[in-house]
Amino acid sequence: MANLHDIAYDMEQAIRNSDEYQTLTKAYKEVNEDDIAKKMFDNFRQLQLTLQKKQMTGQQITEEEAQKAQQQVQLIQQHEVISNLMAAEQKMSMLISDLNKIITKPLEDIYGKSGDAS
Amino acid sequence: MANLHDIAYDMEQAIRNSDEYQTLTKAYKEVNEDDIAKKMFDNFRQLQLTLQKKQMTGQQITEEEAQKAQQQVQLIQQHEVISNLMAAEQKMSMLISDLNKIITKPLEDIYGKSGDAS
Ligand SMILES: [Ca+2]
Ligand SMILES: [Ca+2]
């Protein structure tokens, strides 16, 4: 059995070589080379983060904020390089989640699905 | 280069075989076989979770709760099987954190250290 850290480095390299990572890298580059797309995408991410932070700290999200987020999603989906990036991010996120499910199985066997010891 | 999922299964197996995991499994079993230790540990975990939830939702932690947590830590540290378990958990958590640092490097290269795209 190879050393755990060696396996981690193999996994790092295999992630870099994966279709998912290659596609994501390309999609991210395309958004960053398109000034308008980049600005739209940055604004959208910023709003998402603000709303997430509010939710996590139990603050109320106003109807105005919810509407603004909805409008930005619609605007963004019409922009091809951005919708490509969001699709690529989702595929990458599914891959990472798959890998995590496998890797965290030993700890689940001890603690159960929640990951805590109670 | 081996398939990503194959590498993940190799990593799962290597985690199971690691000293850290073997020690954690043994320490967890010993606490669970000791009724008093188990009850103390469960109470402690429960209190920790309650306080964490409060912090994450921006609620105030009362002085009474902070004192209670402090007392439980002191009580628990005197119980050998529990302090063994907590030490084993910390070593396991450091190992997982090391592996995660390696595996998440490709995504950091795209998004930067924070993991978001902004
Ligand atoms: Ca592939
Ligand atoms: Ca070892």
From TrEMBL, chains A, B:
A Pfam family annotated for this UniProt entry: Com_YlbF
Entry similarity comment: Belongs to the UPF0342 family.
Name used for this protein in its record: UPF0342 protein JOD45_003148
Organism lineage string: Bacteria, Bacillati, Bacillota, Bacilli, Bacillales
